[in-house]
User: Fold these one by one.
Assistant:
Number 1:
Amino acid sequence: MAGGVYAGERKGCVILDVASNDEVNRILLALPFWGLLRWTVIPMEGFRERAAEERKAVEAMKRMMK
């Protein structure tokens, strides 16, 4: 989806839109240099999805306060 390198560093970032962790593994293992680099995978959630979960949590707290 997106990616780039950090300014002034020998590091980069890649953003993937995948259905599962297994898919991330398949993509990384398919790279010819995958074993030469150290990878950190950080799952992310979209802003809309997170906002919806936060709204649910607020509503649950409001119900508990009554």
Note: The longest strand covers residues 2-5.
Number 2:
Amino acid sequence: MTLRTLPKLGLAGLLLVVGCTDAVPTFEDPSAIPVDAETVEILLPFSEFVDEFQVFAGFGSRADISPSLLALEYEGELEARTLVRFNSQPASVQAIPTGESDAVADSAYTPIGGRLVVRMDTVRFRPDAAVELDASVIEQEWDFLTASWMAAVDTLGADSPWAEPGAGGGRGLGTATWDPAEGDSVVFQVDSLTATEWSDRSSGAIRSARLGSRTPGVLLGVQSAIFRADHRPSVDPDTVVSANAESIWSTVVYTPEPGVSEQEIRVGGGPARRAFLTLGIPTVLEEGSGACQGVSACPVEVTPERLVYAGLVLRTRPVEPQAFMPLDTLGLDARTVLSPSRIPRSPLGSPVSVEPRPLAPQDFGPDGARRIELPMTGYIAALLQDLLGEEEEGAEPISSTLALMSRQEPSGFSFASLVGPGQEGEPFLRLILTLSDGVQLP
């Protein structure tokens, strides 16, 4: 714990701080009133203001990542595939019977083929050259909310692994080349067998496809997928009628999938990661401690009235594996945990800082580490009031547990990495206090 004394303020300086312009009636020179005030900065190490530290992953779903992703050996290690399930085909199509002029509804049509049309993200994930993609039929039941690289279904009492990791296996639909210079869509031809399966309107029909990349080293985004089926009407077999079935479910599965570590604070990602801190703010800085060096009178009481500013200071660190470095700016947030006993599934309160702190992608490169400070003066003042028994009558107690997280969850598949406790550059709490015995009149 360290403390630094800041310049003393005379009464004129204090009046300037609070914006007071009234003249003092007794003295022409306000500085003639003796005020013994000093402003000090206290840096509380992690171990002196945090009683408990926990980290968890699993907030939200891979299905919430937008756009979905395709990758093969991206940054030498990441592989990602997008899974889609299509809506059913219409119960009937409109066709004109041979020899007649008016269209009728035909429910006895026959699927004869079609096209899988995939629209790619050309803004954030635009490759420099044409890439080769592949598509396959998924023949296994899967759950879009819980599917992962290893599991088709990962719910309590109903878990089921993939026949092959990464939704592997199934019947291949072939490959297609996508050149971003020619547009944002790539088309796979669908054979009559697959078209018939995907036109099945029964509740047990899977109607699903897996998309992947055949080109290594690139990261691609999938915006949407449509199955455009061709049908032959029974009332006019010489005619082909097309009907669209949009994707109703989609998710991304990827490997590796980094977990969490108690030596590191990770926030964001999909599913998202959070760090939980239970605070134990000292209300007295004891005499003889390092915090009291340069302070005129110890022990020093840390009270809401003396608190000028409080901020949680963290330091970014390189993201590992490198494939998970943030692609966009993340917003670092801290929220109160309303029911600490229910961590990690506790409901959260409002943010303790007005605005999230932006974390830019360059902050997580090999040489990009920088200091991040999250202001939380109002929260720390309210917490001190609770600790000292000075809370307002009827006010709800303030939770001393905070969740560090991304303002938006999930924030994509990538995450932010911050130095954890016990490491060089670990978090600390920065307090600025003004100490004064008040105005002493002659």
Note: DSSP finds four helices and 28 strands in the chain.
Number 3:
Amino acid sequence: MRIGLYPGTFDPVTLGHTDIIQRAMALVDRLVIGVAINRDKGPLFTLEERVAMVEAECAAIIEKTGGEIVVHPFENLLIDCSRDVGATIIIRGLRAVADFEYEFQMVGMNRALDSSIETVFMMADARRQAIASKLVKEIARLGGDVSKFVTPPVQAALAAKYG
């Protein structure tokens, strides 16, 4: 069984994330969505809220693809999380050249830690390349319309956080 790990903070999960999740399902038998506990980023949503949002968004993808998706919170090294869930592939989404520079460094470090785990980069769909959770939160905080970037349930969750 080919197991892939798609890690991120998903604060919140966006249409860019779900685009990568849907396309990654064609590459693996089981996709583990690693929801990172990253205290340095100071997430808007709690871990439990982020996990619930990702699970809700993935339910429709599972129904559509018939594939297996597991949501897995983690706080350890990405490479250790990969081992924990049996993943041999790490899926990473790329939006722009700036993403590549950071991801290139991460791949080098991860390969040094465990060369048996491969990283696969997927370019975000052209319509989704500008979407970043940080920007979505800023737009929502300032009262802007985020409906082009997130699903209605995520939009409602953002509205509830920002009142």
Note: The radius of gyration is 15 Å.
Number 4:
Amino acid sequence: MNKYELVYIIDPTVDDEGRKALIEKFNQLIADNGGQVEKVDEWGKRRLAYPIDYKTEGWYVLVNFSSEATLPLELERNLKINDMVIRYQVIRVLERKVGIKPRAPRPQPAAVPQEEPAAEEAEQPAEAQEAPESVE
């Protein structure tokens, strides 16, 4: 089973009882389809980053759950057709395996050594070498 995070925003005009019923509906949908709700975190009413359907606030809910790979599609389908849900997003949470070391960084290619000046140029004193003229 995979672990997922679901964040959805409920329309702020929905009353408290309707909001709790909606949250319970989605939690029950997860449970009915073989998933397991691990945590439900209601963030409360917050200001949206930009207006959505002329609404500037919404009630945010975060749900952590585990399920098979087919459940998020069914969940998204139900979230999409519900008029009380403004926005939603389901993401898969990657688990960190214990005992596995992170991959070592790739070695960088060795720097190409610069060529030394020819023997004739190296023998001349520094004053004898001409400096480029400045153009003004």
Note: The chain is about 25% helix and 35% strand.
